[in-house]
Design brief:
By secondary structure, the protein is mainly α. It has one domain. It has a two-stranded antiparallel ribbon. The chain has a two-stranded antiparallel sheet with strand order 2-3. It has a two-stranded antiparallel sheet with strand order 4-5. Helix 1 runs antiparallel to helix 2 and helix 3 runs antiparallel to helix 4. The chain is globular.
């Protein structure tokens, strides 16, 4: 397996690891959050709707972010993550994509018939996706912070 490693902490690498940690934690916490109502909808930290599919998706994208940060693929991760999550955030705002309607009590249905989403999820997906998209496509990795000894600073 080809592995690219670096000692340089770029903006893309930092964002990839931050997104990776946040989404991994959300995925793990979601598995331990008790159901909030009779439909089985869970609310992570009382903000984000969740269910097992949602938790697995968060866990996978989070672990990929951590792996990308340490293998040199942070910019690629941010680009893909940005496109996927911005698209997910925008599509989540369309009520017609929630079905079957009315079968989950006061719930509007499942997004694409697969998972629960709410306003907190939409906000998280839009902000994280937009941030990753901007950094992934418009910020180069030329500005770095070296982990080694800096000139003029004794150890």
């Amino acid at each position: 397996m080809f592995q690219r490693t670096t000692n340089q902490w770029t903006a893309n690498r930092i964002l990839a690891i931050v997104l990776g940690i946040v989404f991994t934690l959300l995925g793990i916490i979601g598995f331990f959050t008790p159901p909030e109502n009779s439909t089985g909808v869970q609310a992570i930290l009382g903000i984000f709707d969740s269910d097992p599919i949602h938790n697995i998706f968060y866990l996978i994208t989070g672990l990929l972010g951590i792996a990308a940060a340490f293998t040199g693929y942070a910019r690629t991760y941010n680009r893909v993550f940005g496109v996927v999550y911005l698209l997910l955030g925008l599509l989540g705002l369309i009520p017609a994509l929630y079905f079957p309607p009315g079968t989950y009590g006061t719930d509007n249905g499942l997004f694409l018939g697969v998972t629960h989403l709410n306003a907190g999820d939409h906000f998280l997906h839009l902000i994280a996706g937009l941030l990753a998209l901007v950094l992934g496509f418009f910020v180069t990795d030329s500005n770095t912070i070296s982990l080694g000894r800096r000139a003029g600073f004794p150890r």
